[in-house]
Amino acid sequence: MAVKKFNLYAAKILTYLYENFPTPKDIDTYNFVKKEDMDEEIPMKYYDNDETYINLSMEPDATGNTIPQDEVYNRICSNTIWWLENEGFISFAKPDARATGANYDGFFLRVVITGKGLTALQKGVLCGDESRPIIEIIKEAIINNSMNTIWNLPSILYKALNL
Predict the structure, then answer these.
(1) Which residues contact 69 (CB under 8 A, 6 or more apart)?
(2) Given this model, what pLDDT does residue 75 score?
(3) Has residue 60 been placed in a domain?
(4) What is the pLDDT along the chain (163 residues), one digit of tens a residue?
(5) d(Cα 81, Cα 29) in Å, to the nearest integer?
(6) Considering the domain boundaries, does residue 124 fall inside one?
(7) Angle between helical axes of 2-20 and 153-160 (0-180°, round to 10)
(8) Enclosing domain of residue 82
């Protein structure tokens, strides 16, 4: 479930940033994640990026904690943004959290596609008899809900960069 949502959010984030390039945009994952994205049944166990066990049932675990469905999706979206930044496809401002009171748990400031990200998205790939930019294929996949294309997004981006 998490990998499918990662691919969906990566496609939506890259499309949103590409359409607004070069203007940096603030992304609040709590507003970015849409209700229709929460259509899949969530497994009862999930491990966050820091390997913290999260009980996804609405019954409290041994510590009394439960994680609502929308929070799980918000964490996946936040972790997707962190991954895209770590891989060099996007960048965002990292203010001193102690000075600003800000945290990165779902809110990202001045997010923009990097040169590497722009190069990958504008790279042409062969579709049938014609070459089309990857970003156009991604946009079409989102509109048509073509999960096969969205599922392969990371490998498409790396192939475009010859990695």
Answers:
(1) 38, 42, 56
(2) 82
(3) yes
(4) 677 788 888 999 999 999 999 999 999 888 877 655 555 544 444 445 555 555 554 445 556 565 566 677 788 888 899 999 999 999 998 766 544 544 456 788 899 999 999 998 998 877 777 888 989 988 888 888 777 777 777 777 777 777 5
(5) 9
(6) no
(7) 50
(8) 2-113
Residue 123 forms part of a structural domain: no
Two tokens at 33? 């994640």
Per DSSP, what are the bridge partners of residue 46?
54
As given in the structure block, the two tokens for residue 154 are 């990371």
Sheet hosting strand 107-113, strand order edge to edge:
25-28, 107-113, 90-93
Structure confidence at residue 53 (pLDDT): 52
Q: Kindly calculate the radius of gyration of the chain based on its CA atoms and give it in whole angstroms.
A: 17
Instruction: Quote the number of domains for the chain.
Output: 1
Q: Where in the chain does DSSP place strands (E)?
A: 25-28, 45-47, 53-55, 90-93, 107-113, 124-127, 130-133
Residue with tokens 């923009």: 112
Helices (H), the chain: 2-20, 29-32, 69-86, 97-100, 115-122, 134-144, 147-151, 153-160
**Alpha-carbon torsion angle 94, 97, 101, 103, nearest 10:** 70
Determine the residue type at 102. Answer: A
109, 92 contact by CB (below 8 A): yes
Residue 22 is predicted with a pLDDT of 95
